[in-house]
Amino acid sequence: MNKWVKVACCSLLVVAIFLPIGLYIKVFGVGLWDKHEDWARMGSFFGGILGPIITGSTLVFLGMQIKLQSQQRRDEEVRHICSECERDILKALPIIEEFFVDGENISKIQQQWEKYRDAKKAGDKEKAFDVAKEAFSGSFYFLASWSQVEVSLSKLKDLNPNKYNVMRWHIFSRLDVYVLGYVDSLRSEQLSCSPVLFEQAHLDAMLMAREG
């Protein structure tokens, strides 16, 4: 809750409690009365006026406390999920790096991307999908690791965009950006989703510029 909202609520509560007290003292005075009836009237007044105010205030603050605790639990869950995502990405990267070291794998991905590009230009969606699907055939460990990176990055993007960007740049620092572009482009076609590392327009422009 906003700080000023809290201050306003507390101020209203103080006014609601002390205003009736002040009015009672002004009208009836205050002191040690001799008659039991005077004490009973004062008790009835304050019980009838202040009782509901204090009860209502207690319920409001209890609700605020429950909401705060719920938000804290959610924040803790988000931090835990983000930590798991970062750990999974760092665990998968060595397998992806090993795959990228093999020049034949890189050549195959580039060739498949060129076929995919040509099919897209020709408007052959079915062929483009088949080419994207074939690009990673026989590369089980790489595909499993890359899928883990995709899932983890998607979660980070939704839960914590700052951590998402940090992990993106960490991946860029360890792997060839253009090869990542080929993989991201083919996988987005294969899964019918948006690329996880690049914005689509940036990805298309980057790969087309390299081809040019």
Topology:
Layout: H1 3-28, H2 36-101, H3 103-121, H4 125-134, H5 140-159, H6 161-174, H7 177-191, H8 200-211
Helix pairs in contact: 1-2, 2-5, 2-6, 3-4, 3-7, 4-7, 5-6, 7-8
Short summary:
This protein is mainly α. Helix content is 86%, strand content 0%.
Descriptive report:
The protein is mainly alpha-helical. It folds into 2 domains: 3-74; 81-211, no CATH class. The protein has 8 helices and no strands. The protein has helices spanning 3-28, 36-101, 103-121, 125-134, 140-159, 161-174, 177-191, 200-211. Helix 4 (125-134) crosses helix 7 (177-191). The chain is rod-shaped. The relative contact order is 0.08.
Provide the residue-averaged pLDDT: 83
- SSE-based structural type: mainly alpha
Give the termini separation.
54 Å
Number of domains: 2
Radius of gyration: 33 Å
| Percentage of residues in helical conformation | over 70%
Q: Which overall shape is indicated by the principal axes computed on the Cα atoms?
A: rod-shaped
Q: How is the biggest beta sheet arranged?
A: none
Beta-strand proportion? under 5%
Number of helices: 8
Order of helices and strands: HHHHHHHH
Regions with pLDDT < 50 over 5+ consecutive residues? Answer: none
Number of strands: 0
Oligomeric category: single chain
